[in-house]
């Protein structure tokens, strides 16, 4: 029986498990999840999804065809140390930000088929924007399996590994930028006289409508923006203020900072794991 095993039982693992079952990619019997020590969390997942839970990672690694690494990046060494003897030709799928394939291979002490993925929290509602990158050992069949895994929780694109830092800066962290925009719009809406409830509903619908226009109208965002903007009208007044306040530069700097941080974290983790391996 093909099985998928998750090491790490947090929010990202749960989002993926929910999407996989809902999308019919795996049945609950085919899913195993392990964590470090929190038995209550495992019981909660077993009760909600009917999946198998364990704290025996070696056994999980032996029985799964795909092993998903879903712990925090700082826990990767402790999380996968000890599973290497259980590995044969399984596919390792890592959702860890800033942990390179090289770092994973160096902890395992062998070259494996590894796919790195950068999803985002909208995976919870099967709307993740995910990008994946595959190591040379990954077969076409394994890549297809991984694509259907992430397509069950949203959209999935294949990129080169070095592009994952940019993906992290754009869509991994991206939901937070949108939430900040909404927080600011809500504050302003209340200041100009709307109730919080009506403000929230109007803003959410505006976001959904705008996203769908970009996705489905076939028009460039700039064209769509110009269609909203009447000469000397209200939008022009608003957009001019945004431009005067450096909105575009701020967004560009934001994405670049997040991308840079992803690169820094990757280098930092690589160094600390290399020095731990040499001890
Ligand atoms: N939250 C986000 O927006 C995104 C997160 N990610 C990545 O997903 C990964 C998981 O994030 P969350 O689910 O938010 O974290 P979380 O903190 O909710 O869950 C982490 C899980 O790992 C388990 N764990 C820790 N040490 C372990 C060990 N030694 N052995 C086995 N299990 C262990 C914990 O018990 C917990 O169940 C992170 O590496 C993060 O970089 C990727 C994309 C977006
Ligand atoms: O903030 C972070 O580091 C993680 C990676 C992408 C989203 N959250």
Give the secondary structure arrangement, pairings included:
Elements lengths: L3 E4 L3 H12 L8 E4 L4 H11 L2 E3 L2 H7 L2 E4 L6 H5 L10 E4 L6 H8 L4 E6 L9 E7 L5 H12 L2 E5 L5 H9 L1 H18 L4 H21 L4 H8 L5 H11 L2 H32 L1
Parallel strand pairs: 1-2, 1-4, 2-3, 4-5, 5-6, 7-8
Antiparallel strand pairs: 6-7
Helix pairs in contact: 5-12, 7-12, 8-9
The chain binds 1,4-dihydronicotinamide adenine dinucleotide and (2S)-3,4-dihydro-2H-pyrrole-2-carboxylic acid.
How many distinct helices? 12
CATH superfamily of the largest domain: NAD(P)-binding Rossmann-like Domain
- Give the mean pLDDT: 95
CATH architecture label name of the largest domain: 3-Layer(aba) Sandwich
Kindly name the structural category: alpha/beta
Counted up, domains total: 2
Sheet of most strands: 8 strands, mixed
- Overall 3D shape: elongated
Secondary-structure element string: EHEHEHEHEHEEHEHHHHHH
The gyration radius over C-alpha positions equals 22 Å
CATH class value of the largest domain = Alpha Beta
Into which percentage range does the β-strand content fall? 5-15%
Strand segment tally: 8
Distance between the termini: 40 Å
Pathway: Amino-acid biosynthesis; L-proline biosynthesis; L-proline from L-glutamate 5-semialdehyde: step 1/1
Function: Catalyzes the reduction of 1-pyrroline-5-carboxylate (PCA) to L-proline.
InterPro entries: 6-PGluconate_DH-like_C_sf, NAD(P)-bd_dom_sf, P5C_Rdtase_cat_N, P5CR-like_CS, P5CR_dimer, Pyrroline-COOH_reductase
Subcellular location: Cytoplasm
